[in-house]
Amino acid sequence: xxxxxxxxxxxxxxxxxxxxxxxxxxxxxxxxxxxxxxxxxxxxxxxxxxxxxxxxxxxxxxxxxxxxxxxxxxxxxxxxxxxxxxxxxxxxxxxxxx
Length: 98
What we know:
Blueprint: E1 7-8, H1 16-19, E2 23-25, E3 31-39, E4 46-51, E5 60-65, E6 70-73, E7 79-82, H2 87-91
Parallel strand pairs: 2-7
Antiparallel strand pairs: 1-6, 2-3, 3-4, 4-5, 6-7
Domain PRC-barrel: 20-71
Organism: Pseudotabrizicola alkalilacus
Protein name: PRC-barrel domain containing protein
């Protein structure tokens, strides 16, 4: 996926309603997770990702800081993100429980 034509989402626009269910892609454009929910708003937000599993079954929730994600909109306005983390690295993070 060519992200060069995608528009970064300004930190003041980041909120749960915007990010819920957004796919997150790793460096090799492999889907590494999906946004489950968020804690906080804006530049200090933490994002809970569902990683692993299939269709939400067997997935693990992990917490990452929003500054570890590049959140953007594609040409059609669809929200998604990228991260330098691999799926395996995310799965190795401690499980997040609310």
